[in-house]
Specification:
Two copies of one chain form a homodimer. Chain A contains ten helices and 16 strands. In chain A, helix 6 crosses helix 7.
Chain lengths: 340, 340
């Protein structure tokens, strides 16, 4: 039986092990600093499909299949799948999983979906109701642009504070017993809205949610940034990351020493014009699976906090003058169990 | 620790108890056969808000608050909230929960959301990571019409096979120990797509998913329809219900004797023109909370299977010629634990 630590932190009694993980990405992502770490990079972002939406479906299926292949297992051995994406009604996940015949839980956590799925998968394993569960998330630049912003053909200009939706997907396979890395603790986020209304500055909208979740986790567990090798937020980009570190500075905590952000890791700001950084469910999912988990697996990293962040608005809400609520779900990942 | 029974069925070792539940609805729902059972019926479907989306937000908040009031508890005592709706990016849930400061898991299961949330809430309690968790879902006729179909002002005609999205919300509060009703078993659905492409006939698109989940549950547990007082699907409407019963007939199982459907229960076909029946996440959520759970609570029902169904497409997918994938999540509810 797991238990709660402090107010919101979840502590797994038998921390699930991450049996396998895989990341696939598009051409631009392949040219970034992590390009060589992806399991597969598509040179054509259509993935040979007749629509961008079908391309994202294919992307997500490929990530799951590669994680299964790496674990030497098959879909039939997965007890539950937790998946989500940014498309309206999450169709990349629904169409991506319609042939798997596995119990499916559709999620909407915007760019926080990867850790939302990992927490639920870990909870399912802790409850004894699943032995093996998959968490996956995807995004595609072209499906996101035409849905949230402009038709691609329009060539609309982007604000300097805007982020670039990654064409990428990541899949993680968790199991009850294994050699790690382990998901040891988690802190599921609450919705936080500080009143930011600018759709072109998601980092600022999500930073307060990241602050609240991380602050709750530190308070609940009595831990400090120094205890972690890296604290990696998802998709805050450069502006959101600065705000997050500033908010901690005001609390007398030096987060910057350990902090990095998936939105800043995926692209090279010198050669790739993504303005404030990367975003999209697939951004943090892919960075987790091509950079963080490999390093935990071969013990180059010992303890990591991984905290994707999501912005929970839609176009209609923004047109109605609403502000942008944010959320951040945190998981603690460890290379060794004996460290605890 | 819970365990799996057969291939897909989840059996809760310490079945969570449903501490409280509440249903709120709009004017049309209030005039239906269950109108007198709602906790509150709004006479103005705008709920006094400046947009339909804000009205749905208010509807969902009201359902949760009323369930908390009935349990004699407050938001602070809820360890996790599982919520979803039909709006793009599930904003009714996100904006509805932005002031609760509780760990929030956003779901997208279309009209199956209520049972998806209940399964996850039960799993969280079974894992020991939550003592008390809420599951909620909402829909609003006017947010759904303009998003999925036509501007209301256009007055578009509806096909006879079309269903009417309910303006309603339901909230269920589960806890580790209590006097019931109990959530004893569950069967999380897989995505099933039999190739139906007609957005005006969702019942037909979802019926195969309902069949698969229920068939899996019967196979896994060795149980039969006769063992239940009622087997209630969500939102198949009249056409989908007929297909579901026909599919079971072909397997030699008489489902019709025990079967009813939330989409057929919410409105009176003689006096309310909803064509093939009701639909929307709020339809099954409200029918559960205003009809099924009250009868389980005062022991007028002993054993019930509740199985909301969802159609997982979006407008873009349909425009691209895709078929409609369906899903159905089942929960077994019992008035007494000693019956097991």
């Amino acid at each position: 039986m797991g238990r709660r630590e402090g107010k919101k932190t979840l502590k797994f009694d038998a921390p699930p092990s991450i049996a396998a993980f895989a990341a696939v990405g598009g051409k631009k992502e392949g040219k970034g600093p992590l390009g060589g770490c992806f399991d597969f990079v598509y040179q054509d972002d259509s993935l040979g499909q007749s629509s961008w939406e079908r391309a994202e479906v294919a992307l997500q299926k490929e990530a799951l299949q590669r994680s299964l292949d790496k674990a030497g297992t098959s879909k039939g051995e997965v007890d539950m799948i937790f998946a989500g994406d940014l498309t309206n009604q999450c169709i990349a996940s629904a169409y991506g999983q319609r042939e798997t015949d596995r119990p499916f839980f559709g999620l909407y956590g915007a760019c926080s979906t990867m850790s939302e799925g990992m927490i639920l998968a870990a909870m399912a394993i802790e409850s004894g109701l699943a032995r093996r569960a998959a968490a996956l998330a995807s995004s595609h630049f072209c499906t996101a642009e035409r849905q949230f912003r402009m038709p691609l053909e329009y060539g609309g200009q982007r604000a300097p504070s805007a982020q670039w939706t990654a064409t990428a997907a990541g899949a993680v396979l968790l199991e009850a017993c294994g050699k790690g890395p382990y998901l040891t603790r988690a802190c599921a986020g609450s919705i936080v809205d500080f009143g930011v209304r600018d759709m072109g500055n998601m980092g600022a909208a999500m930073a307060p949610a990241a602050f609240c979740t991380l602050f709750d986790f530190f308070s609940d567990t009595g831990s400090r940034p120094e205890e972690y090798d890296r604290i990696i937020s998802g998709d805050l980009g450069r502006i959101g990351s600065e705000i997050l570190c500033e908010l901690f500075e005001k609390e007398g905590v030096n987060l910057a020493q350990k902090h990095s952000d998936c939105g800043c890791l995926l692209y090279d700001p010198a050669t790739q014009d993504v303005h404030a950084g990367g975003s999209g469910c697939g951004c943090s999912a892919a960075v987790l699976c091509c950079d963080i988990l490999p390093k935990l697996k071969d013990k180059r990293l010992g303890r990591v906090l991984f905290m994707p962040t999501g912005a929970l608005m839609n176009n209609t809400a923004i047109q109605q003058g609403e502000s942008i609520p944010g959320i951040a779900h945190l998981v603690e990942l460890r290379a060794y169990l004996e460290e605890s």
